Amino acid sequence: MAGRGGPAGRGRILRRSRQADDRGLLPPDALVSFAALRAESGIDDVLASLDRELVGLQPVKTKIREIASLLLVSQVRERFGLVAPRPSLHMCFTGSPGTGKTTVGLRMADLLHRLGYLDQGHMVAAMRDDLVGEYIGQTAPRTKKIVNEAMGGVLFIDEAYHLHRAENAQDYGKEVIEILLQMMENDRDKIVVILAGYKDRMDAFFEVNAGMRSRIAHHLDFADYDLEELEAIGELILGQSSYYLSDGAVKVLRDYLGVRMSQPRFAHGRTVRNALERAQFLHASRLIADAERPWSRDDLMRLEDVDLIPVLAAAQDVRAA
Fold first, then answer.
1. Residues 53 and 154 in one domain
2. What pLDDT, in 10s, does the model give residues 129-147?
3. Over 80: is that where the pLDDT of 12 sits?
4. How confident is the model at residue 157 (pLDDT cuts 50, 70, 90)?
């Protein structure tokens, strides 16, 4: 696993001034510093972005740091001639919609590229309809096209359990699974596959697909957000667009989340974002409606309770229905 900085860059990890041999290997008594290697790879930027963009999810973030640490150590071990089998990094992300799985997938692709594990830092997202054809002969070309697009990076398959339909023995999803199994084994040095979906459904999927289960090395569970975490997500979303909530609007948002958390199709961070984007439209309409009134910079940033009350009312109407 080659580092990204070239021989000169890798030389900066040395704490003792000793030259590498003709094979590029360090002498056994050389000392190395991981601080310089971390800075050179830029992985701290990726890890910091996860902390900025995602509220909570500490077990997920810890696992990502463990993977980064293993790959950093592997780079240095190779410089000493300590060669080990390349670790398999195919993964399964489980959790409810809107808990950050896609965001983490994107950051994982970037991280693995910076650490030299993947040639590229891109992610290709796909679902059943992207992979499975409607007629005989369509599925293999469709699947191989998506796989080729993802080669060198990450293939992220959301709701992966839909590939298996036990009630239909002739379902073409079985062909997708067979292609993926072969690719995950033969091309594991060129691509990382992430399967995502609800935990109970993914568990059932692995029960009937032992080959797939054996190829997934890492399972990351994205826990549901509680009310305080959802409010923090709201603050984060608004801050990125230079908005904030008045005290009254904070209370209305809390009431809204209390209603939506008990309803079907609640999507955690995605639901928070949708509500706040709707409030921004209502805020803009309110300001424009009073066109003769002078508005301050703070007025342009502050969402009031009246901007969120219609959002809450719509949610309450759904519950009443």
1. yes
2. 999 888 888 889 999 999 9
3. no
4. very high
DSSP string covering 38-89? HHHHTHHHHHHHHHHH--S-HHHHHHHHHHHHHHHHHHHHHHTT---PPPP-
Instruction: Choose one of 222, 242, 257: the last residue of a domain.
Output: 222
Report which residue type is found at 44.
Answer: D
Question: Rounded to an integer, what distance in angstroms lies between the CA atom of residue 90 and that of residue 217?
Answer: 6
- The residue segments making up the domain with residue 263 are 227-320
Q: What is the pTM of this model?
A: 0.83
Q: Which of 222, 240, 255 is the last residue of a domain?
A: 222
Q: What is the mean pLDDT of residues 29-50?
A: 84
* Domain count of the fold of the chain: 2
Residue partners of 252: CB distance under 8 A and separation at least 6: 305, 308, 309, 311, 312
Are 296 and 193 found together in one domain? no
pLDDT, position 168: 66
Q: At what angle do helices 58-79 and 34-41 cross, to 10 degrees?
A: 110
State the Cα–Cα distance between residues 63 and 89, nearest whole angstrom. 12
The token duo for 315 is 């949610």
CATH of the domain at 212: 3.40.50.300
